[in-house]
């Protein structure tokens, strides 16, 4: 095995926050490098994803969700791209190969068998694997499939999922795409940079209109598809604007996850169920990335990226020491697109 540094860094939870997490709730700790067990692949992480749903894990998690809650002293985790340092012969991996795994927020990781995926050349930039193109493509082709000419509404249009979902909806044949976001500046960027036809602003817009009225103006004939990353009043507005037979894909509940007054583990919203019935709205929680879905998204997305038809909005923040601040900025809505830490 190649020689390793005497100590490596990782980000740990120092204290549970009362409300939204801040950088002081985390600590950069030094620890001996991991010792790989039988079957483990030792990787040096190069990039990891900073995602706002960590707030839910800090609040105790949600029963049935795939990830455990975080407690003080725990190392954070999340999607990462790592460079292989050593691997068992039967893996077919060689030093220098790239793999994707879920042990981010640390400089080195010993990744157990079955918990890593080789990064091939399907995408022009390996960092795209840390974005949400897979979620956006799968939601719009499986959970709420786009039909040519549909009007699509994407909540959280400036986030990691939304910044790609609007573009992908258009490439799949949508006739009109509307996104929601939190500020006039981001609303302008959705239209000028990401191909949205219109953008609405959560709460009351600059003219004082609530989001339901803004959406009615932006999609006067109603919406056929919802890609919902937010919930709350934006989901209510989508129900009001839905056309008969509308298809809703629910991916996130950021309105609850990022509310200072809630623990981050619930997404309460009051919906008029009569509207669901009368309009025959199909509402489906995102079905996850099964093997079939994993095999279908990379080729079309890679082709669109190479042709320039699709862009990958993201921000790279250098240094693991800046990761807690990056999370604070993500939760505060400072950035557009995905946020990754580069090591």
Automatic annotation (TrEMBL):
Domain of life per record: Bacteria
Chain ranges of the Enoyl reductase (ER) domain: 19-341
Keywords: Oxidoreductase
InterPro entries in UniProt: ADH-like_C, ADH_N_2, ER, GroES-like_sf, MDR_fam, NAD(P)-bd_dom_sf
PANTHER family cross-referenced by the UniProt entry: PROSTAGLANDIN REDUCTASE (PTHR43205), PROSTAGLANDIN REDUCTASE 1 (PTHR43205:SF7)
Name of the protein described by the UniProt record: NADP-dependent oxidoreductase
């Amino acid at each position: 095995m190649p020689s390793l540094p005497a100590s490596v860094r990782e980000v740990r939870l120092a204290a549970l926050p009362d409300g939204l997490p801040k950088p002081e709730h985390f600590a950069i700790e030094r620890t001996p490098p991991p010792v790989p067990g039988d079957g483990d692949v030792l990787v040096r992480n190069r990039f990891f994803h900073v995602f706002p749903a960590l707030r839910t894990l800090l609040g105790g998690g949600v029963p049935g969700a795939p990830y455990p809650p975080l407690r003080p002293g725990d190392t954070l985790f999340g999607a990462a791209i790592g460079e292989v340092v050593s691997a068992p012969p039967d893996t077919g991996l060689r030093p220098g190969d790239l793999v994707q795994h879920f042990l981010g927020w640390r400089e080195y990781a010993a990744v157990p068998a079955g918990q890593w995926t080789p990064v091939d050349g399907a995408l022009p930039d390996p960092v795209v694997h840390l974005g949400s193109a897979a979620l956006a493509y799968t939601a719009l082709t499986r959970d709420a499939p786009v039909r040519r000419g549909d009007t699509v509404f994407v909540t959280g249009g400036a986030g990691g999922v939304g910044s790609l979902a609007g573009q992908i909806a258009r490439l799949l044949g949508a006739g009109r795409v509307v996104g929601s976001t939190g500020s006039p500046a981001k609303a302008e960027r959705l239209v000028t940079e990401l191909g949205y036809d219109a953008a609405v602003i959560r709460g009351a817009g600059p003219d004082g209109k609530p989001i339901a009225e803004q959406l009615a103006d932006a999609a006067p004939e109603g919406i056929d598809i919802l890609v919902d990353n937010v919930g709350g009043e934006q989901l209510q507005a989508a129900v009001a604007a839905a056309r008969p037979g509308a298809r809703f894909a629910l991916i996130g509940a950021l309105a609850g996850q990022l509310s200072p007054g809630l623990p981050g583990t619930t997404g309460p919203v009051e919906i008029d169920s009569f509207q669901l019935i009368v309009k025959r709205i199909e509402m489906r929680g995102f079905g996850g990335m099964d093997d079939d879905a994993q095999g279908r998204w990379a080729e079309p997305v890679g082709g669109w990226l190479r042709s320039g038809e699709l862009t990958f909005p993201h921000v790279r923040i250098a240094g693991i020491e800046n990761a807690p601040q990056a999370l604070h900025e993500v939760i505060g809505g400072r950035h557009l697109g995905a946020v990754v830490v580069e090591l």
